[in-house]
Amino acid sequence: MGGVGINAIANRAGVSKELIYRYFDGMSGLMLAWMQEQDFWTSHRDFLASGESSQQPPGALVLSMLRAQIEALGKNETLREVRRWELVEVNDVTAQLANRREKAARSFIDRIDGLTPDMDVPAVVSIMLAGVLYLMLRSKTESHFLGVPLRTNEGWERLYAALEHIVQAFPQDLKQESLATLEARRTATSSKSKEP
Amino acid sequence: MGGVGINAIANRAGVSKELIYRYFDGMSGLMLAWMQEQDFWTSHRDFLASGESSQQPPGALVLSMLRAQIEALGKNETLREVRRWELVEVNDVTAQLANRREKAARSFIDRIDGLTPDMDVPAVVSIMLAGVLYLMLRSKTESHFLGVPLRTNEGWERLYAALEHIVQAFPQDLKQESLATLEARRTATSSKSKEP
DNA sequence: CAATTTTGTGACCGCATGGTCACATTTCGT
DNA sequence: ACGAAATGTGACCATGCGGTCACAAAATTG
User: Fold this and answer.
1) Three-state DSSP class for B169?
2) pLDDT tens digit sequence for B154-180
3) For residue A129, which of A167, A93, A177, A182 has the smallest C-alpha distance?
4) CA distance linking residue B153 with residue B159, whole number of Å
């Protein structure tokens, strides 16, 4: 595939691919090792469990997480390539990557969810984070999305402002939501199932 | 690539690939023709410019667009595969697809943007739509995202509720919509089915 | 019927990929 | 210094890809 093939990697790194097989047990090991320190969720484990976290309000916490993701993805083309690859390929490597990330991410989101019981924090943050991811990945192929430029700082400032706008509706907003929908969600989420 | 290669398509369709070259001018033509009627933005041209649009409040309009996208992607695995492919591949086909889509999408979003001058509608809707897209595409590889299940109706109901919640923060829109219609839509949508 | 055009198929070519191999060079322990 | 690991490289193989070709079977036309 694209830029994450063994040949491409070995070439770009200027080494023979045999070495990758020997020292990283193939691309599986290489990918896992590299992603360990490149991916936000696995490299910012401190940020996720730190004491600073609990002092900031939930909205600001989510915002800084999103900002960090934008930063990390924005300046690392290879990381974007890998995350595109994760979207397409299904094997034990991608499964393991997803596993690690989901574990870290859930510990982060669950703590915030506990702080703001009046809304479905995981779902809302999922939309926002997934949106950021898609637009980051999409910037390779398309220069605009709904008219918003994806390859300029100005475009990403607009997007970040939009995220701020969405987050503003965090703590105080959902109190007006009908109790019916709230209760519906509560009962629904209580039947969450673990990864098979 | 994955399931959108010429060999795979010809095989799945039970025809020789030569025919695809002869009658569709290669995969370029086939892809363009097929996507013309599969993609939301190009097949719902009526919805985008219809009179019904201008009667609904902006928020409801966006929501129904998002709902339609979820529907379309949810029940069409091949469409998801193509949109994954669009994320990775850069050539004149993907460029043309992006062009068509962006044109239709902008005419939709610009009209809404005109109605609500107090916020950056394109940016906010970009986040939401991109989020939906990413989670749809991601459902192939990962079963959960931030703990939200991506392969069950229940998970997508939560996500749709999150979208509703975000849309509520639109300037003056959903306040006009009565809680009754809100409740009606909620119960109505909860009976639909999809299987990503 | 016969000739020509349309519709269809399997084989083939060039190329890039993932993966392995034999072999050269360097480093290191004794 | 010398033999044994460790480190490194290019060639090689099988496979799957996109794309093209020669040729067979229908269908159409006179």
Assistant:
1) coil
2) 999 999 999 999 998 776 544 444 444
3) A167
4) 10
Structure tokens at A176: 């007006």
Q: Do A87 and B138 touch (CB under 8 A)?
A: yes
Neighbouring-strand partners of residue A144: A149
Rg of chain A over Cα atoms, rounded to whole angstroms, equals 19
Report the nearest residue to nucleotide C7, CA vs C1'. Answer: B19
In angstroms, the CA B2 to CA A1 distance is 9
* Residue numbers in B near A135 (CB within 8 A): 126-127, 130
pTM of structure = 0.86
To which H or E segment does residue B151 belong? Answer: none
At A120-131, the pLDDT tens digits run 999 999 999 999
The 3-class SS string of chain A reads CCCCCHHHHHHHHCCCHHHHHHHHCHHHHHHHHHHHHHCHHHHCHHHHHCHHHHHCCHHHHHHHHHHHHHHHHHCCHHHHHHHHHHHHCCCHHHHHHHHHHHHHHHHHHHHHHHHCCCCCHHHHHHHHHHHHHHHHHHCCCCCEECCEECCCHHHHHHHHHHHHHHHHCCCCCHHHCCHHHHHHHHHHHCCCCCCC
Q: How far apart are CA B126 and CA B68, in angstroms?
A: 15
Consecutive H or E run containing B12: helix B6-13
Q: How far is A24 from chain B (nearest CA, A)?
A: 24
Tokens of A14: 């200027």
For chain B, the maximum distance between any two Cα atoms, rounded to a whole number of angstroms, is 57
- A158 — pLDDT class (breaks 50, 70, 90): very high
Interatomic distance A95 CA / C1 C1' (Å)? 67
